[in-house]
Design a protein that fits this description.
The chain has 184 residues and is an all-alpha fold. Helix content is 77%, strand content 0%. The longest helix is centred in the last third of the chain and has 37 residues, at 147-183.
Length: 184
């Protein structure tokens, strides 16, 4: 058995030992919990800076949608079975999922938000990257992904998130310099 299968077996073997861990991992594995946190942050952002937040929120949303699409295409190109389809015994926490394993789109999408927000708000990395790591662990905890699925998802997501944020920063700089030139 590969080291990745052993890592999944170990993580999934933690199921049922601590009810709090089970609940936290289930919520993270669900995929919506990280976006609930991101949604709260975005709502706060829009509430405080209505005009300034609209374009970044649309940019972040577009980045996540593109990343999710690319991740889904890569899953079918790689066609790696999920651990829960391969392992002879595993604890079923949240079902197995029908799609393939590589990359983890949950991790990919969360990493897009982390990379994007870190460029715009560098201090957000202290919250967002541990959330990405927990998301990756939760996917192993429920036996839906191998460690490398999370790593690939995190790297792809970070690249897309940082790329979208850098495009936004450059667009704002150009827009700012154009408006200053028009006033002068």
């Amino acid at each position: 058995m590969s080291w990745e299968a052993e890592a999944v077996r170990w993580a999934n073997g933690l199921v049922g030992r601590w009810p709090v861990l089970d609940r936290v991992m289930y919520e993270l594995a669900d995929g919506w919990s990280p976006f609930l946190l991101i949604g709260i942050a975005v709502a706060y952002w829009i509430w405080h800076e209505k005009r300034e937040a609209v374009v970044p929120v649309v940019s972040l949303t577009a980045g996540i949608l593109v990343a999710d699409f690319l991740g889904a295409r890569l899953k079918y190109a790689v066609a790696r079975p999920r651990p829960c389809h391969v392992l002879d015994a595993w604890h079923d926490v949240a079902g197995c999922g029908a799609a393939f394993s590589m990359p983890s789109n949950h991790v990919l999408n969360t990493a897009v938000a982390a990379g994007f927000l870190q460029v715009l708000y560098p201090r957000s990395g202290w919250v967002m990257w541990p959330l990405v790591a927990l998301q990756a662990f939760s996917r192993m905890f429920i036996a839906a992904h191998y460690p490398s699925d999370g790593v690939v998802g995190a790297l792809m997501g970070a690249a897309i998130g940082v790329g979208v944020a850098m495009l936004l920063v450059n667009w704002r700089r150009r827009r700012g310099s154009l408006s200053l030139a028009a006033e002068g």
